[in-house]
Amino acid sequence: MTRVRLTAKERGAEVLEAAVRAFAASGYEGTKTDEIARMAGVSQPYVIRLFGTKQQLFLAAVQSVCTRIEEIFREAAEESPELGALGRNYKALLGEPELLLVLLHGFSASGDPAIGDCVRERFGSIYTLIRDLTGATPQEAREFLSAGMLLTVMSAMQVIGPNAIPMPWAEEIEGTLGN
């Protein structure tokens, strides 16, 4: 079988995808760059050459995840520029649970100044995007984000989303959120 040679950009995208999966599973502190390299099918020195440090790779993963979340919200707003449409598209995020897990790990690693700066800036840009796309008031945007964070935590507990462990309380909560 012939192996296809990828460009550095293509290989970097593969490494970043592997990093998102690895950081989602083990968090910032619990993930090793050699584990990411194995998942991407490259050497650990190559990962470092592409991204510099584990911290820079984690920041790239957080940036990638936040960009994807913003894409999902933009797609929803194209259909209907209201919070309800964004909420309905939140199910797309539940279908990509690694996105939500990396975001949660970013929040928990925000004690690191560089990570905290990145996570705060990106969360703020998601908040601003929600308001810009829908015309939501600050209170409406806060309530929307609160519901989204509850779904994110429930996704991390694996009580909603793909392969959910059925829990009556989780189904009740999810039903009250109108998603």
From TrEMBL:
Source species of the chain: Kribbella jiaozuonensis
Keyword vocabulary terms for this entry: DNA-binding
Residue ranges of the annotated DNA-binding region, renumbered to this chain: 32-51
Ranges in a coiled coil: none
PROSITE patterns recorded: HTH_TETR_2
Domain annotation HTH tetR-type: ranges: 9-69
Protein name as it appears in the record: TetR/AcrR family transcriptional regulator
GO molecular function, a single term: DNA-binding transcription factor activity
Gene3D superfamilies: Tetracycline Repressor, domain 2
